[in-house]
Amino acid sequence: MPLVNVRLIEGVFTPEQKSEIIHGITEAMVAVEGEALRGVTWVVLEEVHSGDWGIGGKALTTADVHALQGQVPASVAG
Predict the structure, then answer these.
(1) Burial zone of 58 (CB within 10 Å; 0-12 exposed, 13-18 middle, 19+ buried)
(2) CB under 8 Å to 60, separation ≥6 — which residues?
(3) Which of 18, 24, 17 is nearest to 38 (CA)?
(4) How far apart are CA 49 and CA 21, in angstroms?
(5) Distances in Å between the alpha carbon of 73 and those of 37, 56, 70?
(6) Which residues contact 33 (CB under 8 A, 6 or more apart)?
(7) Which of 9, 22, 37, 38 could lock onto 33 through a cystine, CB 3.0 to 4.6 A?
(8) pLDDT higher at 25 or 73
(9) pTM of the model
(10) Do 44 and 8 contact (CB within 8 A), yes or no?
C-alpha cells in the first residue's frame, strides 16, 4: 500500500486543484503498478504555514508562490 505525502504551502492551491493532485498521483501509481493498486493508494496533502517553508535561506510565503505563478493574491485582487 503506497502512501504518498505531498507538502504544499497553505493557500496556494484551491480545493479543486488539490483534488486534481490526489487524482493525478493516484493515476501515476496505477500506471506503474497496475489497477489493483488504485484502492490501496493513499495520498496525503499537508499544508505548511506561509513563511514556514524556506528555499535558499529565505522563507517562502503564499504571496511569493502566487508571484512565481504570475497570479495576484486573492486578498489583493478582491
Answers:
(1) exposed
(2) 9, 51, 53, 54
(3) 24
(4) 19
(5) 38, 23, 10
(6) 2
(7) 37
(8) 25
(9) 0.80
(10) no
List of domains in the chain: 3-77 (3.30.429.10)
Q: Which of 1, 2, 29, 78 is catalytic?
A: 2
Q: Could you read off the pLDDT of 14-71 as tens digits, one per residue?
A: 999 999 999 999 999 999 999 999 999 999 999 999 999 998 999 999 999 888 888 7
Tell me which of 73 and 34 has the higher pLDDT: 34
Q: Is 2 a catalytic residue?
A: yes
Cell of 48: 505548511
Which residue, 77, 4, 5, 3, is CA-closest to 48? Answer: 5
